[in-house]
Amino acid sequence: MMNLRELEELVSQGEGQQLEFKQKATFPEKIVREMVAFANARGGQLLIGVSDDGNITGLKHAEEERFVIDKAIRIHSRPPVRYQSDYIPITKKRGVLLYTIYENRKKPGYYRENPDKRGKAYIRVNDKSIQASREAVEILKHSRGNKSQPVMVGNNEQLLFRHIEQHGNATLSEFMKIAGLSRSRASRILVSLVISNILKIRTGEKDDYFYMNAIQ
User: Domain count of the chain?
Assistant: First the structure.
């Protein structure tokens, strides 16, 4: 089990791709959304009882908070997020909850605000959890496979490659414009190029950016 010194060292790293702070579990469904994003990436750690600026305040009623969070995980995540929870005492009366989130075996996992609906996929980008685009969801579905898929490179793909060569990357809307394609057609091409390891995707808060994979 992690001790206080180890906790302080972890917190000193600051929030990032695999680490998130929450001061309390006031909105447990939002905590589950963060967990889903971790599970759709490479996993991560979530600390309850630590403020955004890294102040370790702890929880007075940690077991009650844990009960609420565990229930929210069962209700709001599909497939249920795989995790381990630990309690780290910081004083005689207060402590921090550490949730270690494991990567999904099958992606994507979904956050369901309404338990009767499929929900939305979230992914972790730096220190934020954002909703995955349609393209990112399709790529996640293929992420567990190790083999690349062959793809035909035609005029549309050549136009895309030239744009990326000139500008460093391309968005879906840019590809649609330069190739005169519908959204669905442009989307299918981009997804197939990423799955085939010709392109890589970098997800942003507003757009996904596609760029050439240096290692093919």
Answer: 2
